[in-house]
Amino acid sequence: MSDSPSFSLSGFVIGAPDPRELADFYRRLLGWQVRDDAPEWVVLRSPAVGPTLAFQREKRFRPPVWPADGDHQQMLMHLDIEVDDLEAAVNHAVDCGARVAGFQPQAHVRVCLDPVGHPFCLYVG
């Protein structure tokens, strides 16, 4: 018998200078719906069952640098997003406001940067 409590991952939180702006980018990118909307906190939910994606205001936000160089803010985590068509997904991400990162470490993955600089990866599963 385990003394460990039960854990269930319910969501991910991303820091942003303006939570509403960044949430709107991911809403358009992923096609998710807004569940909670406040000036300091926005939550998106997937139409499918799964964790939420929340955005929290960070007053002293510093965008991460990709790839990390040791002298600037490093990313703390990133999102991996499975797609069915990598080229179409990259084009859609750019249309939503993303930038394709200059450094691409893998041929079958595209590292993109969201409007405030968080890296995320698009890949075909």
Automatic annotation (TrEMBL):
Tree of life domain: Bacteria
InterPro entries with a match to the protein in the record: Glyas_Bleomycin-R_OHBP_Dase, Glyoxalase_6, VOC_core
Domain VOC residue range list: 8-125
SUPFAM superfamilies for the chain: Glyoxalase/Bleomycin resistance protein/Dihydroxybiphenyl dioxygenase
Stated name of the protein: VOC family protein
Organism of provenance: Jiangella ureilytica
